[in-house]
Amino acid sequence: MFNNRDKSFVKIAGVTALLLSLYVIMLKSQINGSRNIKVNSKFDNLYLTATTFSPTTSLNGVTAVETVEHANGLTNSKEGESESSPTGSSKNKMKTLVLQVDNRDFDGVSYWSLSQCINTAYASAHGYVYKRVNSFETCLKQHEIAPAWCKVLAILDALKSGEYETILYLDSDAYVRNFSISVDDFLERWGRRDPGGQGPVVHAADDCCGQFANTGQMIVEKSPISLTLVEKWWELKYDFPNRQWDQRGFAELVRNNDTFKTSVNVIPTGEDSWYIGYRKIKFDSKYKESNWINHIPSNGYWRNERVPLMSKFIEEHGFIDCPNLTRG
Predict the structure, then answer these.
(1) Containing domain of residue 4, as a range?
(2) What is the reported pTM?
(3) Number of domains forming the structure of the chain
(4) Are residues 6 and 150 in the same domain?
(5) Do 200 and 212 fall within a single domain?
(6) In the chain, what is the greatest distance between 2 CA atoms, to the nearest angstrom?
(7) What was the pLDDT predicted at 316?
(8) Do 61 and 200 reside in the same domain of the chain?
(9) Mean pLDDT, residues 8-26
(10) How does pLDDT run across 73-84, given as a tens digit for each residue?
(11) Which are the contacts of 41, defined by CB distance < 8 A and separation ≥ 6?
(12) Pair 29, 43 in one domain
């Protein structure tokens, strides 16, 4: 026979077991329903729900993959759209686009997938919109051009949409490594703006080996001049079919137009800014990382450092689950 004390204990144990069962069910549901990215104290303890990717048709028919779900109040702006809409964020943040373009599938283990994971988290942390444009179907099938040219079309379509004040374009081998620096912060330091806030509207990194600029990371601000420049740039897509492709076209376009010259800001590459190009420090065996954006070039030895550096960054900075993250 149980006394009253024993009966109370049994009731408490039963309730505890029930609560534990409910907790396990809820936990399993969360794990199955979403993947989480956790950012440690280096990023002010931000907690981000990993982006859910959904193919949509956007940017004048170019198939795009866009962020559709975030935590911290980030929700879709309206049904059918897949853009983040951060609660309480500034108007400028809402109109900043982080853009990447690639014709390869997201597999979770390649450098182009890992950079997407990192750059998506960066965009989410600052309340920006992130888009990855899959250029294979429309751009490459319609135009017999090098894949590098497709980013020009994607930038052009984003400008024509009129939705974004600022576009941060990143090649697939480029990623943001310092989340504490916003796009506006970078432009305040490097944008060559006058006291009234006026200045160049297209910003690119300088390059080595006689190249005018590296277009693998660019900031394009909305203006009639930037739209005209990118339109003229896209018109050159068949004129530069060989290596350097769009970069050669960009250099020729800007060098031969006085208006474009004053509208383009070529920012020094280095450890205190962004991108350190191939042969810029050719005698160093290891890639030297920059303060804001790493762009790890395809030439030579450094191409083998892409996946290790990106994977190391993801793990060291507390991303718990980047889809199918390689541990190699």
Answers:
(1) 1-33
(2) 0.72
(3) 2
(4) no
(5) yes
(6) 98
(7) 85
(8) yes
(9) 57
(10) 222 232 223 343
(11) none
(12) no
